[in-house]
Amino acid sequence: MRNTNQDVKTIYRKDYVAPGYWVDTVEMGFDLHPQRTHVATRLHMRRNHDSAEKDLILFGEDIQLHQLRLNGVDLKRSAYQRNKERLIISNAPDTVVLEIETSIAADKNTTMSGLYVSNGNFFTQCEAEGFRKITYFPDRPDVMATYTVMLRADKKQFPVLLSNGNLIEQGDLGDGRHYAKWEDPFKKPSYLFALVAGKLVCQEEKYRLKSGRKVLLQVWVEEGNLDKTQHAMDSLKNSIRWDEERFGLELDLDRFMIVATSDFNMGAMENKGLNIFNTKYVLANSRTATDADYAGIESVVGHEYFHNWTGNRVTCRDWFQLSLKEGLTVFRDQEFSGDLVGNATGRAVKRIEDVRILRQHQFPEDAGPMSHPVRPDSYAEINNFYTVTVYEKGSEVVRMYYTLLGHEGFRKGMDLYFQRHDGQAVTCDDFRAAMADANGRDLSQFERWYSQAGTPRVKADGEYDAKRHVYRLKLSQACPATAGQDHKLPFHIPFAMGLLQQDGSEFALQLESGKAHPQAPRSIILELTQETQEFEFHHIEHEPTPSLLRNFSAPVILDFDYSDAQLAHLLAHDSDAFCRWEAGQRLAMRRLLKLVKSVQNGEALALDDMFVEALRKTLVDANLDPAFRELVMTLPSEVMLAEEMEIADPHSIHQARRFVRASLAQALKAEFLSVYQDHLTPGKYKPDAVSAGKRALKNCALSYLLEWSHESTYELAYTQYFEAENMTDKVAALSAMLHCSSALQPQYQARRAEVLQDFFDEFQHEALVIDKWFSLQACAPSTDVKQIRQLMKHKAFSLANPNRARSLIFAFCNANPAQFHAADGSAYELWGDAVIALNKLNPQVAARLARSLDRWTKYPVAQQEMMRAALQRVATTKGLSKDVAEIVNKALAMKTELCL
Ligand code: B3K
Ligand code: ZN
């Protein structure tokens, strides 16, 4: 905490210096008491003669120091320097045994970083820099050591004592206390340290690895939740098998544990052998979790497990390299989920969902004040850089290697990466070098994906030469200026494409003239490396419809002047499911943007038949996967529409989108009704992709039907709500009743209140379901600021619990744009109040919420002024954390930067 916000220090990548001392072994003893935990630490350290850093530097924050002993001698206060963040010992010998005694008030720690208490149990969170809140330590990822940890605690209050690695000893201490000693055989950076102590129960299983070795798998939860751990356990076993099969990577420990807590700043954490999870990504049964929850659990369990190799065995040299482990591990979890579905459309659906997230969140980030390269050059608070750019764009960057090098080539690169760097802390350049060297490729230009921020735009122009039967495709790239980066150099862009014939089949793609090669591939990857390049396709007998950026082969914005007819052709025929979906989105986007203008000008609104027909065909095409049809029927979101506009106008956007949904509902009501009936999933609930796809399409049809004002459709939702035997269908019915326009009419008010109350009563003891109850209301178009303030007073609301804060306040600020941008600015005030209150409790979560105003310069001047005032109010708050200060200061600098 600090008083002025000007002294927030920036750390630069270029200033990296290797540590002055290495740590070989760490021995720790914890005497766990919620009010005062005593920690004794012994470090065996040795000088790093290659470093320019001569001092022995330890980090420490918010801890009491009781003793410091160097090679057996107590250090006097004059023998070291200490401030609020560091402890520095100058002139230390080359070999050091350092003994440190500290204590921590874990029960007062509301930041959920370091050691903290949740529901009476102890948890830790050390990434990125939380270990320094436990003891003094060279808390940086390039210092890797082996750990032995002794935990002592009251036996009744804390019957379970867990840490990383293997349990080597346990027993009674007398006095009602007991102990457990853990040893982690692998060297690890301090951010992967973890301990858990408390009243927990577990589901466990012995699992046989491919090699025949048996390992113990455990999923630990609070009592009463053992009926919700099976899916997490199944996901863990699937992850282990997948990593063996796809990458030849085996679990290196004899024991692997997952522990769930309801107080957690993010999704989960990959601590070595002891993954700690937000309950949201562990607990599921059909009564409480939706299909999306099941999918989320599978991918997060996979993600954390995959970190064991990409992150833990090979880690990051410094935090600027974060995407080395995060981008790669997101790529791995995306592939895992895709492979588990098993078929081509299932994979495509997963790909489309991932692209949607990238566009909805990362593209705006890249265009706003927090824009940064995948490998950032600077930060004030590293926790602010666990972003969609580092994660999702980082994953796209890894995917581009995969696209460029192919399945085998990518695997060769991964093998070489582990061969070279197992047990090391390395950089993104090391990863790129392994990919290049394993494949004999020059990937030097590819480096720009790591160093240049901003979303590149690729402009494509096609020209058909009917005489020569040649189709000429011209591609040009440009990348807009971003904060601190005015001029960008061309990227190395893999550009997958095909050319469709009139009958929907594909032309053979032949880049050289001469004899026709009918066996030539129908889909190819062009490599765009210059600002502009031209490609000629030969033996193209008639004007083709180009299918461009197939499977979203690069994280760029593609401009091509498609006609409506071409888009309809792609939507009907493209063999590339991504481009097929994209064609539908382009048709919709075009209309929506025009309609927004009409709303602004007070003109009459109309939707053309051509669009309705194109969607009708997809909706009823039984040859298409239901999950895919649902994606096509889902219009671009209000957030995405706002991004497409020079000056965003959330109210007009909301009305225009509403109008299109209502018009589609009106025109296609018979189709929606039969789709609804045809996709019921009777019988026992199964969360697999096929069943989930059916439910998604059915519930999409339901939501459209409720845009069309009619008592019978309202009844449909009402009945579904009460009869639903799984949470997916229950929430979908409730959501339709709260979000769709006809359902918002006054005559339904009483029934809306009835279902909301019923839902609360039934699930009041299921925290994750009550989160849904808050979210559904926060996102409802009829919920205004006043109602949000009311809900904040609800007995079930708590700002201190991150999941609850996210379910109400974040949901409102980020997912209800028409209400959040209310003309009187009252929601900005609510935002400010919440950021300021959270700042005191939990700076990391506060900083996340602070980002809701990132795009403030995109709004009309009157709104901008109110947002600026809200930002300024936060920026000048006393005791602002560097987390929040960095975000609001960058946002406030936005205007001036762009005007330069
Ligand atoms: N590595 C953690 C994220 C830590 C966030 C610290 N603020 C989870 C993950 O990416 O798997
Ligand atoms: Zn991760």
TrEMBL record:
CDD domains: M1_APN. It catalyses: Release of an N-terminal amino acid, Xaa-|-Yaa- from a peptide, amide or arylamide. Xaa is preferably Ala, but may be most amino acids including Pro (slow action). When a terminal hydrophobic residue is followed by a prolyl residue, the two may be released as an intact Xaa-Pro dipeptide. It comes from the Bacteria. Keywords: Aminopeptidase, Hydrolase, Metal-binding, Metalloprotease, Protease, Zinc. Coiled coil: none annotated. Residues 454-560 form the Peptidase M1 alanyl aminopeptidase Ig-like fold domain. Residues 232-449 form the Peptidase M1 membrane alanine aminopeptidase domain. Its cofactor is Zn(2+). Residues 564-893 form the Peptidase M1 alanyl aminopeptidase C-terminal domain. Its EC number is 3.4.11.2. SUPFAM superfamilies: Leukotriene A4 hydrolase N-terminal domain (SSF63737), Metalloproteases ('zincins'), catalytic domain (SSF55486). It is an enzyme of class 3 (hydrolase). InterPro entries: Aminopeptidase_N-like_N, Aminopeptidase_N-like_N_sf, PepN_Ig-like_sf, Peptidase_M1, Peptidase_M1_dom, Peptidase_M1_pepN, Peptidase_M1_pepN_C, Peptidase_M1_pepN_C_sf. Residues 36-192 form the Aminopeptidase N-like N-terminal domain. One of its GO terms (molecular function) is alanyl aminopeptidase activity. It holds the Pfam family DUF3458. Belongs to the peptidase M1 family. This is Aminopeptidase N.
